[in-house]
Amino acid sequence: MDAGSWNSSVNLKDQSRCPLQEQFMQRKNARENLDRFIPNRSAMDFDYAHYMLTEGRKGKENPTSNSPSREAYRKRLAETFNMNRTRILAFKNKPPVPVESFPREFSSSLNHDKPTKSRRNIPQTSERTLDAPHLVDDYYLNLLDWGSCNVLAIALGNTVYLWDASNGSTSELVSIDEEDGPITSVNWAPDGRHIAIGLNNSEVQLWDSTANRQLRTLRGGHRSRVGSLAWNNHILTTGGMDGMIINNDVRIREHIVETYRGHEQEVCGLKWSSSGQQLASGGNDNLLHIWDRSMASSNSATQWLHRLEDHISAVKALAWCPFQSNLLASGGGGGDRCIKFWNTHTGACLNSVDTGSQVCALLWNKNERELLSSHGFTQNQLTLWKYPSMVKMAELNGHTSRVLFMAQSPDGCTVASAAADETLRFWNVFGVPEVAKPAPKSNPEPFAHVNRIR
């Protein structure tokens, strides 16, 4: 064979592809087209495949052992199975074009039609402002409360005033004698009709606000002023400057039923949990106690469940979480400035946030996971926090002195704040729940910006 015919035969051999090469190119093209290899079972011959993998390889692996009869049998079998087949697995049809689950136009329209929750507008100014002359500027007192019948009670000096939020009317409930005053705490009973009033002379008066008459006076429990009150059904808990906490059953003559001893200085914060099982108390001794009602004893002083010493200033601001029964928020005074969160079952501090100023009061939003705090020096602001991230959502300014007291309306939408600047302001900070939003009025009446309580 000359050189030309040799080169020609080599080129022809190079141009022809063996079955494996052809299969490799097919699969390579399939990968480049981003398609999966999906075999067509109707194009497969499993009998032939099994022969090639077993009997067909035995002759190649051990050719010397083949007898003439075996070789004849192999050739006959090969003719039967058509030895000219190129490959076992083969594409018979082109793969189908991928189809999107939804057309692009339709999916984009779905995204546009999906309702998105609009961000709530938080008014930066108060809706209404009332004068509150002679409001005692004392961090350790509790002089403001909003009852379940939508009546706000505020103590100004020696007098308790009631403001009916449904009609805006103001009335005087009681004025005490100078030697017994000033009034140091007020707190509505759960029925929204009866109210407890703590006095500087260590006594506590119970009043029927509807009949405008005094029902009884609780004496003998404390030795000094009663600055904090908290109702738990028919039990009225009182906290005094003497460090004592007393449970009073207002239905019986001998009203003192339990005594809690743990604070070394004035008890300035008292709050029962919604279940009525746990009581949180804060004092001027920088202590926070958790008491469990099941551990209460009438024979001896009750031992606390947890004694928490993380705050480094007076603990007055207390608020139980409405959506998690064992979560308590507490705020520290001017030397502490922190809001702390507690698991009251274990006593663990879950988080601590430095607010930068004295924490006077705390309120949870009943409809959203938010917390409102009121502050003293130096900005005298209200701050709305997102829980649990504790990102500031808004800061409400208007008071010119420390915001000592806050109270929340029964529907949870409006907050009243009373400050040492002798003003009472109303804020629509928590908004109106979606299900309770009234229809818009055609001619809304504007609020009067300043009214007087007295």
CATH superfamily of the largest domain: YVTN repeat-like/Quinoprotein amine dehydrogenase
Main beta-sheet strand count, sense and barrel state? 5 strands, mixed
The percent range for helix content is 10-25%
Instruction: Kindly identify the CATH topology of the largest domain.
Output: Methylamine Dehydrogenase, Chain H
End-to-end gap: 127 Å
- Beta-strand residue percentage: 35-45%
**CATH hierarchy class name of the largest domain:** Mainly Beta
Give, in spatial order, the strands making up the sheet with the most strands: 26-27-28-1-29
- CATH architecture call of the largest domain: 7 Propeller
Number of helices: 6
- Averaged pLDDT: 82
Number of domains: 2
Unreliable runs, pLDDT <50, ≥5 residues? 1-16, 101-112, 439-454
Quick summary of this structure?
The chain has helices at 3-15, 19-32, 46-53, 55-61, 68-80, 104-113; strands at residues 128-131, 144-146, 151-156, 159-164, 169-175, 183-188, 194-199, 204-208, 213-218, 226-232, 235-240, 244-249, 256-261, 267-272, 278-283, 288-292, 306-308, 315-320, 327-332, 338-343, 348-354, 359-364, 370-375, 382-386, 391-396, 403-408, 415-419, 423-427, 450-452. The protein is an alpha+beta fold. It has 2 domains: 20-108, no CATH class; 130-452, 7 Propeller (Methylamine Dehydrogenase, Chain H).
